[in-house]
Amino acid sequence: MSRVYNFSAGPAALPEEVLKQAQEEMVDWHGCGMSVMEMSHRGKEFMSIAAQAEADLRELMAVPANYKVLFLQGGASSQFSMVPMNLLRGKSSADYINTGSWSKKAISEAKKYCNVNVVGETPAGQFTVPAADSLQLNADAAYLHYTPNETIQGIEFPYLPESGDVPLVGDFSSTILSRPVDVSKYGVIYAGAQKNIGPAGLTVVIVREDLIGETIAGTPAMFDYQIQSEGESMYNTPPTYGWYLAGLVFQWLKSKGGLAGMAEINQRKSAALYAAIDASDFYNNPVEVNCRSWMNVPFTLADAELDAKFLADAKEAGLVTLKGHRSVGGMRASIYNAMPEAGVQALIDFMADFEKRNG
Length: 359
Ligand code: PLP
What we know:
By secondary structure, the chain is α/β, with parallel strands linked by helices. The chain has 2 domains: 17-255, Type I PLP-dependent aspartate aminotransferase-like (Major domain) (Aspartate Aminotransferase, domain 2, 3-Layer(aba) Sandwich); 258-358, Alpha-Beta Complex (Aspartate Aminotransferase, domain 1). 34% of the residues lie in helices and 16% in strands. The chain has 9 helices and 14 strands. The strands form 4 sheets. A 7-stranded mixed β-sheet has the order 2-10-9-8-5-3-4. Strands 11-12-14 form a 3-stranded antiparallel β-sheet, covered by helices on one side. Helix 4 (101-110) links the parallel strand 3 (93-98) and strand 4. Helix 1 (16-25) packs across helix 6 (240-255), helix 2 (44-61) packs across helix 6 (240-255) and helix 7 runs parallel beside helix 9 (341-358). The protein binds pyridoxal-5'-phosphate (PLP). Residues 10, 75-77, 102, 147, 151, 171, 173-174, 192 line the site of pyridoxal-5'-phosphate.
């Protein structure tokens, strides 16, 4: 069996080493005679797996002691509701920066619970983020929410929004673990797992302790950070296998030099791909240079009639899931942590060859 280079935006490729380790441990984990999938979440084996994964994530991200790390279900989309439910704390409004498709979804969900002030916005059809000094922040907002990396548009914030005393909330789904981040600047960091953490079905939430404990009336127990935190993310049966695989990914990241090591690799990978696109008249990336994502690289072909051929030929060459999101068109190469540099080089070589044959 030969594995392809999978450029999917999510669920995305996992490191091959992690998949092989999981395969070896699949049927009989560490001689205990059963698979992790079959273990009680309250048994000592799974408890050790869960604790190790949390400790490794804390180490990788240098999570300060006054933050809880939760391993939940429901995807990043459930955080679109959980954030207002838990963070409004008696206030009636929250600030949101709207930079694209995922910001919009977060905003429309938050509107069910509070007044949403859109304090900065990417104009329709543009691929940029609002300037830091243009944000119209409100001192009485319950929190400021933004999307550091817009997975669909391929836009990444080149700066950290300064929200003063207002807690900053980041939807890190498609950029978490791609580089070091100063967790202490945030009230909440959340991410669906299926890009840089592990399989879909797991959601990681990192939340400052003092923001936990007051929810709006009617908040379901499953959506209450305090209940989830007191229950060590085991209020109900957690997504055990996803949690275990995330733990293997965290160990893999540590073996690669942690997030500083990953950042160097990711910077090189994305720079090489953007350089190839910029050097050609045949390919184009629409994103303003200083906001180009390290993780999701959308690009178009000079002639959209060639899109289908490009995808078919790429697949033939072992490069798959390059079709762009329907709202943007063209192509999108998602090059998360698990995409090796050789995969990006294979794509660059294929693009040059395709241009030669069809340009
Ligand atoms: N936020 C961002 C930035 C995403 O990229 C995605 C999924 O691609 C989501 C939220 C939604 O995640 P989930 O499917 O885990 O709810």
